[in-house]
Every structure is written in structure tokens, then in C-alpha cells.
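To assess whether ligand presence alters the predicted conformation, the chain was also submitted together with zinc ion. Input:
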Amino acid sequence: MAKCVKCGAELPEGARFCRNCGTRVEIPELKPDLLEQKKKDIESAALSMRELSDKMIASYVTGMKDFESSLETVKKEAESKIAEAEKKFADRASKLLVKEKEFAELNEKYKKLQTINQQLQTEKLDAQTEIASLKSRLAALESAATAPAADQSGESK
Ligand SMILES: [Zn+2]
């Protein structure tokens, strides 16, 4: 606690005059350079606070940009993979279509071959029938040739 410079009485806080002797209490005024120093300290503190917040904002923005760019990368990768898969699917579908067409063509050929085969079978049966009739005619002619003359005259009628 401060004391009066004249009588030495204790001075209460903020007193301007001594209650004992009435002497004016000298207030230790802040010197201009001290004020300036305080101002500078406050300014530098404010500056460092601002720098810190700027850094935080910058790192946040950078982080956001990194996040956005990595998101973009992931998105592009996914899109290219989807496009690739779609292309593969389209390729497979077109190949399948070609195979189906080929299969249909083969099926058509097979049906034609079956028809031809049936025709050949019919023709073969006809030929067999014809051969059989020719054979029987030949046998008849042979037996006529070896038969007695009476039969031969009967044949010639
Ligand atoms: Zn005093």
C-alpha cells in the first residue's frame, strides 16, 4: 500500500490527497514511451492473433481445396470405371448379338440341310422302288427268254 510522501500515513487505493496531512498524492503517470510500448505490445499481440487466424483460415482453405481435388479425383476415377464397364458391357452385348445372328444363320443352314436330306431320302426311296421294278422286269424278261416258245408268242401279243 502507498504511503504519504510527507507524513507517511497509509493511503487508501485511488486516494488523491492524504487524509492525514492533505498532501497531494502523486500518481505515477504512465510515461509516453511506456504508453507507446504498451500500444506496440497490444498491436503486436493483435497482429500475431490475426496472423494465426489467417494461417488457420489458409490451412482450412487449403484443406478444403485438397479435399475437393481428391473428391474430384475419386469422382473422375469412378466415372472412368463406369464408362469402362459400360463399354465392356456394350462390347459383350454386341458380340452376343453377333453370335446370336451366327447361330440363327447356322440354324437356317441346318434346316435347309434337313430339307435337302429329306428330299434325298424321298429320291432314294423312289430310286429303290424304281430299281425294284426294273429288277422284277428284268427277272420277267429272263424267265421269258428261257421259257418255251408258246409263252414267248403270248408275250409278243
Ligand atoms: Zn500525509
